[in-house]
Structure formats: C-alpha cells, structure tokens
C-alpha cells in the first residue's frame, strides 16, 4: 500500500483551458522534447501561463502528476524523503500465566517525499518556480535527469544505495527570471540538462480567447478589455507590464456587477483603473499610479 499516493494528482484537461494556435505550437514542441528524453523548463515573467501550460502538457502525457512548489526553506530531504515520527512494536508474552514478558521496539519511520515517489513510479513531476529553492537542495536532480539514478540516504534502508529512475518519469520546470525576492540563480549544470522554453505575453487572439472563456463576457467586450490592457503594456511607461490576469480580473468583475464595457460606464472605468494601477505600480508609488490612471482613461476612450 502506497501512503505517498495522497500527493499524486490525476491528469485531466483543465477547465476553461484555451488552446489557440500559439498554445498548440508551444505544447507540441514541449511534448517533442519530452519524447526525446529531455526535461522541459518554462521560463517567463508572472502572468505568461507557465504553470497552466505545465499542467496542460502533463495532462497530455497522461501519467499521474506530482507537484512541488519551490521554497527557500527546502532541503534535499524535502524532495527525497526523511524520517518522520516513530513506529512502535510491542509484544506481550503471557505463555506462562505467572510470568508476564513484554518487548518494545521503537524505530524512526522513513517516508519518501515527492521526488522519490515520482522517480520510483514513473510519474510526471512539475517543479513550479524551482529557482525559489536553494541550489544545494536541487543538486539531487543532477543525477536524476542525466544518469537516471537517485542517490538514496542510508537511513532509508532497503539495502540499496540508489534508485533507478522509472523510464516513464518526466520532469517539467517553471521559473520567473524577473523575480528578485526569494529567488536563487539556478546552477548551470542543472539548466544544461533541460530544454528552456521562454514564454512571453500571449498574442492578441489568445488573450481575447482566455478573457472570454474565464469571464463569460461576449467576445467583443473581451476584446475591448484586452486592447486596453495591451495598449498600457505596449506603452512601455509602467513599472510592471500588465498581464492577461489583469484582463481576467476586469472582465470577471464587470460580469459580476452586470456592468457595460463602455467608456461612458463609470463603474467600468473605475474597475480598469483600480486593477491596472495596482498591477503595474509598486505599493506607495503615487506619481506612477496617477500616470497609469491617466493612460487608462485615454485607452478606454480610444477602444471602448
């Protein structure tokens, strides 16, 4: 019986997933690299769909999925496994009624963590934001990806010093190159073992399709919202470029409030300014916030 199975996800199509030509082409290339035996690394700024695309590719592979989120506090044992809790064995011998004999045996209990489970059973590993983990914690991946072997700690027991990685094991990584808080530079040896696919903001068709699918607004309204967001992004005057998440936030809120995607609708204007000013400026940056709101007003007048 596998207690580790509780950490495994069932691969299935994502709800409301939008598959345009751009998405299909990216997915097909990723699956080709995986079929050739190489891990895939989706690298891009926040909002470019790295994790969603990784889950989509994993669903196409069809194997159970194990997911890990990078963390500064991770050590190798958080990936491989460790001794957690105790197992107590007690034997009571009362064969002779006048003599009571008891034996107790208490040992630490080893539990495999997610990387070991994925390697052992040939599951698909999604390591989301892997550069948030310290490089020394990720060193275990070097032999896993190259030699298809995992070094096992002596405490694990079982008489073997290594685990042969199942042929069906697949690894998909994601990272954000522009994050600065809690992010480490990945070691060259690890990056050299994977194929990195750089993701940028989606094309117009894909952003409109995603906004329409996630919000339920008519396509013409979704397109107006996307044009406003893209216009702000392409202006190059924001501290942070707005992403498709901004489109979704605006569209879903308009849908909830039964608003109108129209320059004359005050609620719509306020929603756009709230969402886009917060998404594109740092906290406390009043001057930039005012500038963004002015640009948003102009873009709404132009496209809506």
What's this entry about, in short?
The chain has 304 residues and is an alpha/beta fold. Helix content is 42%, strand content 19%. Belongs to the CbbQ/NirQ/NorQ/GpvN family.
Strand and helix layout:
Elements: E1 8-9, H1 21-35, E2 40-43, H2 50-61, E3 65-69, H3 76-80, E4 81-93, E5 101-112, H4 114-121, E6 124-128, H5 135-138, H6 140-146, E7 149-151, E8 162-164, E9 170-175, H7 188-191, E10 195-198, H8 204-215, H9 219-234, H10 244-256, H11 266-280, H12 286-303
Parallel strand pairs: 2-9, 2-10, 3-6, 6-9
Antiparallel strand pairs: 1-3, 4-5, 7-8
Helix pairs in contact: 1-2, 8-9, 8-10, 9-10, 9-12, 10-11, 11-12
Portion in beta strands: 15-25%
The first-to-last residue Cα distance is 59 Å
What is the fold-level CATH name, i.e. the topology of the largest domain? Rossmann fold
CATH architecture of the largest domain: 3-Layer(aba) Sandwich
* Spatial strand arrangement across the major sheet: 1-3-6-9-2-10
Number of domains: 3
Q: How much helicity do the residues have? A: 40-55%
What does this structure look like?
This protein is of the alpha/beta class and 304 residues long. The protein has 3 domains: 3-75 and 115-198, Rossmann fold, CATH 3.40.50.300; 81-110, no CATH class; 204-303. The chain has 12 helices and 10 strands. The protein has helices spanning 21-35, 50-61, 76-80, 114-121, 135-138, 140-146, 188-191, 204-215, 219-234, 244-256, 266-280, 286-303; strands at residues 8-9, 40-43, 65-69, 81-93, 101-112, 124-128, 149-151, 162-164, 170-175, 195-198. The strands form 3 sheets. Strands 1-3-6-9-2-10 form a 6-stranded mixed beta sheet, sandwiched between helices. The chain has a two-stranded antiparallel ribbon with strand order 4-5. The chain has a two-stranded antiparallel sheet with strand order 7-8. A hairpin with a 7-residue loop joins β4 and β5 (101-112). α10 (244-256) packs antiparallel against α11. It is elongated and about 90 Å long. The termini are far apart. 35% of the residues are buried. Mean pLDDT is 84; it is low at 1-6.
